[in-house]
Amino acid sequence: AGRYDSLDDALIIFEAADTLTNAAMWLVAHMTYASRVDLSGQPLAADDFKENPQGHTGGSLNMVPAYLGYTAANALAGLTRSWLMGQGHCVAAIESVNILLGNLHPEQQARYTLDEAGLSRLVSDFYSYAVTPDGTPGVPLGSHVNPHTAGGLIEGGYLGFAELQYTHMPLPGERLVAFLSDGAFEEQRGSDWASRWWRAEDCGLVTPVMIANGRRIDQRSTIFLQGGTDWFRQHLELNGFYPILIDGRDPAAFIWGIFEAESRLQACSEQVSAGHMRYPVKLPYLIAETVKGYGFYGAGSNAAHGTPLPAIPRFDEVSRRHFNESIARLFVPEIEIHGARDVLATHRADDRPAEKDHPLSCRDVKLQTVPEPVWLQTAVSESPMVAIDRQFVALVKANPALRIRLGNPDELRSNQMNQSLDLLKHRTLTPEPGLAESLHGSVITALNEEAVVSAALGNKGGMNLVVSYEAFAMKMIGALRQEIIFARHQKSLGRPARWLSVPVIATSHLWENGKNEQSHQDPAFGEVLMGEMSDTARVVYPPDCNSAVACLNECFRTQGQFWAMTVPKAKLPAVFDGRQAVQ
User: Fold this and answer.
1) Domain match, 332 and 395 both
2) Which of 192, 213, 430, 529 is deepest in the core (most CB within 10 A)?
3) Radius of gyration of the chain (CA)
4) Where is each Xylulose 5-phosphate/Fructose 6-phosphate phosphoketolase N-terminal domain found (predicted)?
5) Spatial CA neighbour of 288 closest among 207, 392, 202
6) Whole-prediction pTM
């Protein structure tokens, strides 16, 4: 694929990726420990180090060959895939590679130039906790992925949500490489259900990549306590994946792995389309075996997670020597960095976007039509959830080009969403005759609130709705807060999110006493979200059907927001007419 017709041409890309991997790992180590860089390669002196070094050094070092392999695979293919990283604390890897490649948003481009002054500002800014007089961050750099990070989609501070979202992210024709953490494997249920949801008819190609370095913060990860990658490979096979082991220390392995995974998934899709295979497709899954912190002192130890040196180099001569010896092995002369950068800068020749502008980072979704609701006359009684059900069906039918995800923990009919369920149907691998089930249904149903809300959060190229009992909606708060914070920061930078806003409806609520007493009631869902900025997190309590459908319509007229709607199920008299409800 792409514009490289000979092995020699391709090897130039491989060599450039290898060169930049060394340079980026060198820069990651500086981001943790140093206050400046020396591009001549001279050892750093005591005064060149930070007094309080911080960083998730080991995981960031492991992510460098992965992200560079992804970038080089794009250059070889002549297309720009999207990327996602669940372990957002490994941001130093992404920032270092982006800076070496010039793949930056304007505020970073101006501050972090590819010279000694610019890279010294980068390492000095990292974990500086600088703030401006008005209390906002003082530098365009964070401890986790944030909207300054070119191409970043989620903060990834709360592990486990990337695993639940990636299947629902790319639209047909798009490709996504999702970098995942073996530590996050034990965080959330639902990541092993990916093949249960993936369909070639409405999903793009996905390549999950686990960085299997064997450690979380204080001890080995569960995967390695259970038996390592052999155990994990068997686990994946039992859960509908096709595991592919690669060398996580080598960007060339990631390049090959991405091409191999995509070609396998594409071939399976074609076989399904031709009627020679049936769903579920075994999703290719790369397991990148490596050692936590490979390439730097302390690799493989518990300390490698954060600051692997035995002490602070500014005050300890032994640690200073270990640092200088480690970075000397990674050092790449400046001229070679620029040469490798030019090799991977194929975007103009291939007429493709930069990695910072990959398809998932540039969503812009608006409804073609927002149908006028059926307004009830005042004093006429109806369930507000029935009214929402009727209006959502009208919205879906009026906007047929949009992929739909309706997140449902289990009780759509109890929640009065009968028309929506009959139209959209549960997505299942073995539809049961006579029930609202379909191989290609748009209702994502699982007794796991994090998994179903993540189906909606991942589907930023389409239209979404989530419905839950009030108490169980509390389990969605962590995922929602991550998205709310990220979207709010995007807005503050003047690059607001342009995906269609997402309504999350809580029923069986405290004031209604709708079902099963206090076990199904928890007013904290709305109360917690009131603590977020209301231009991004809207909290509404519609008291009747007219106000409920007015809120639903208004939500879908906006972009980059989340609407927490606490809505009754019981029949209630309409107290607002249509005009008042819209007001």
Assistant:
1) no
2) 213
3) 25
4) 18-254
5) 207
6) 0.95
